[in-house]
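Hi L., both proteins are below.
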Amino acid sequence: MDSSVVLSLDEAILRFGREKRNGRRIVFTNGCFDILHPGHIRSLEQARDLGDALIVGINSDASVRQLKGEGRPVLPANERAEILAAMECVDAVVIFDDLTPREVIARLLPDVLVKGGDWAGDKIVGREEVEAAGGRVVSAPVVLGYSTSDILRKIREGALASRVDS
């Protein structure tokens, strides 16, 4: 397959529907991916290992703000998408506006849906749609020690400490 790209949902459906018809297993995962850290990278590589192509859905800026609060995202969606698309394990990135990727998953119908193990199995958005279409849902183990919120907290505390020191 050619290099990773940022696609609209319709473009992803066209491109990866054809891939599925040609027998390739399509994997989907999603998140905010606000500040990329090793936990994200390991999770994405594990997800990619479950199939032939990995599509990553990322929350739009408005939905990240609703989910994470003011001051987030740190990086705008187009920059987060560009960074993810540059990763070797990512075949395509789709930006979505809703709080959940349910519509993306229901329309794309990946063969494998991957979500972090911090989500209870019955709470994984898109589970019903993927399983009804014959796909499977994988709960990936969380990579401990990495959190965008923790990184941002450390940055803020460091910034505060440096102001106090001066």
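That was the first. Here is the second:
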Amino acid sequence: MSDRFTKDQRDAGRRLFAGPSAFVLGVAKLEQLPPARGAEIAFAGRSNSGKSSLLNALTGVNGLARASNTPGRTRELNFFDIAGRLTLVDMPGYGYAKAAKKEVKKWQSMLRGYLRGRPGLTRAFVLIDSRHGVLAADEEMMTLLDEAAVTYQLVLTKIDKIKPAELAKVCAEAEAAAKKRPAAFPLIHATSSEKATGIAELRTEIAALL
């Protein structure tokens, strides 16, 4: 990863996320979407994939993104402003079995509308819990992004919870899954919010998209 970017680019990533970060609003319906302003980066992931922890680690603000006590409950797109230069969008967690089918269908419809019609949506990051690898629900999200023609990358989370040999295997599997997808960017990020592993690299990746 470090070979892909210059020192100046890495410094730009650090400076971007050293600025102020703030929650803007939560959106439950398409008509509530705020006006697009600059670049937007969306984060998707299964419930309990570590999405809130990753967003907090990226911004360095504990509690900026809050995980629901009940997985699968949050059904809003949450918008965060990063230093007035970037908007991060926390998409609802998916793949939770107890979510009512009617609610899931409603959420998927809103999500499809957001992904297909949002100007400025530069990239999506799909979080994969490294302990489980790419599951069927992740494949469904990837298909949704492929259909919407939104470029995305896979981000492995919680890599501190598995052994190096297991990480190498899940990385290879994630790379293979990404290569089959028309809208997937092939580089896989491996992160641990708890240990801050891979966080600086992901900041650099995001800053380079601006």
